[in-house]
Amino acid sequence: MPRLIAVLGEYYPSYGPHQATDASIEHSKTLLDADIGAEWISTQAIHEEHLRGYAGVWIAPGSPYKSLEKTLEVIRYAREHQVPCLGTCGGFQHMLLEYARNVLGFKDASHAEYDPYASNLFISQLACSLAGREMALSLVPGSQVADIYGGTSAREHYYCNFGVNPNYVHLLKQRSLTISGSDAEGEVRVVEYPGHPFFIGTLFVPQQRSTPDRPHPLVTAFLQAVLERVDASIKDTTEH
């Protein structure tokens, strides 16, 4: 299996979070001394069979995406096939939408950015935009995210105008998904999927805080999970 990450989204070279995504991968690659490549792929161009050529998927900021359905297909594939998956900002929102549709069974679960008048808006417009803000974050002790951070508090940057609809939080808690991070008001900011090697979504943009001297721990943990998947694939091939 190639050491390649698919960065799914509509790439804009001048968009700060996209620049930060590329830079943060380089920062963590250097820290890990790892040979990992990353390729941006438009949501219009991705197909499930393409994913077999990638060891991990990063659902990038910058929604609405050109293809909502293909984005959700990729997320579902990653969730069901143990492919390391990191979703930030819009990626977080779409990970929750996929979960609502395919695990909770709300086939009409919707995102207000695509259809503001839908009946089941799991993702709604925030009452107060978080774009450009830096906020405190509380992490659940014992969660995968808290272990990655090495603590239960952090500060992170946001670029979003949409988030979890408060009226649907109780539904998200009914099954296997874990809400592992929240802001000072208790709003959902981080989710993870138990039993998966790495399936984490953050409403904030962790890559924005990554620097060459201090690569972001979430990005580094994501790349480490990618490397472990590659190594497992190589071992499985040699044993058979």
Descriptive overview:
With 240 residues, the protein is α/β, with parallel strands linked by helices. It has a single domain (4-239), classed as Rossmann fold, CATH 3.40.50.880. The chain is built from 6 helices and 12 strands. The strands form 2 sheets. Strands 2-1-3-4-12-11-10-7-8 form a 9-stranded mixed β-sheet, with helices on both faces. Helix 1 crosses helix 6 and helix 2 (68-80) packs across helix 3. The protein starts with a strand and ends with a helix. The model has no long low-confidence stretch (mean pLDDT 92).
Spell out the blueprint of helices and strands.
Elements: E1 4-8, H1 16-32, E2 37-41, E3 56-59, H2 68-80, E4 85-88, H3 90-102, E5 109-111, E6 120-125, E7 134-139, H4 144-149, E8 153-157, E9 162-164, H5 169-172, E10 178-182, E11 188-192, E12 199-202, H6 217-239
Parallel strand pairs: 1-2, 1-3, 3-4, 4-12, 5-6
Antiparallel strand pairs: 6-9, 7-8, 7-10, 10-11, 11-12
Helix pairs in contact: 1-6, 2-3
